[in-house]
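Journal club prep, shared notes

We agreed each person brings one worked example of a sequence with its structure written out as tokens. Mine is Inositol-1-monophosphatase. I'm keeping it raw so we can talk through how to read the token line rather than staring at a rendered picture. Sequence first:
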Amino acid sequence: MTGLEDRCDAGARIVGHAGDLALDYFARRAELDVSAKANPQDLVSEADRAVELLIRDAIHDAVPCDGIIGEEHGCAAGDSDWNWIVDPIDGTSSFLHGLRGWSVSVALRHGTRTVAGWVADPSGGRLYRAVAGQGAWLGDSRLRVSEARLLEDGLTAVGSGHPDRMGALIAALLSRGGAFQRNGSAALSLAHVAAGHYLGFYEPRLSPWDCAAGLLLIEEAGGVSDPHPLDRPAPVLAGAPGVIAELRNLVATTELAEPVD
Ligand code: IPD
Ligand code: CA
Ligand code: CA
Ligand code: CA
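Then the structure, token by token:
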């Protein structure tokens, strides 16, 4: 196996299997071993670790030379220019609380370009996928971002972050007639932007595995995003072309004097 097409076939198959395994764990989430990482809301369970191991083993079997960067098991350098960025369960908190706002997110990078991405929503039976230059898709349906021109014409998704800053952002959004939602999975939120369900998305700090696949979905669906380095945590701001300037302004006007690290 050498090229993008074979890797795309492998990626879709692997993410599908990962979603099935995650769903098995979701059905028995009350029995899982769970611990907190950085804070009491930042949870990890045996499901996160097991799903990532399945993905890593399957990538290694399919393309042994490729590198893998995963949230739970770290970085395994490869001998090729291809790297896979893996979030086995994005939205662990939703997952463990029995909500459907979680996903499996995998992106494929070639050099410094994201060339393919998959966001599976296993509890909704959906797999969002994109290939650079070839579009973003849900099944046979091509994804397109919203054509709205004002934030008051739809829903804006927000992530978590500094309480003052997010509070100010949400207040400003509401005061201009907009509305916010938070489904618990940044990757799934970005897929919903690509599908036109959300107008845009903002979170002040996301890791590469949270957003690499979702940002490609948005780009391939005709949306725009501010650049994310994809080698360290950074803000993610993305949306439909008609509202991105308004969303940028809103975020800028609610920024704190001190940068969020
Ligand atoms: C989290 C989710 C959440 C976002 C957090 C992420 P995780 O990822 O994407 O929506 O607000 O910043 O860390 O930990 O559930 O994989
Ligand atoms: Ca996590
Ligand atoms: Ca995540
Ligand atoms: Ca995760």
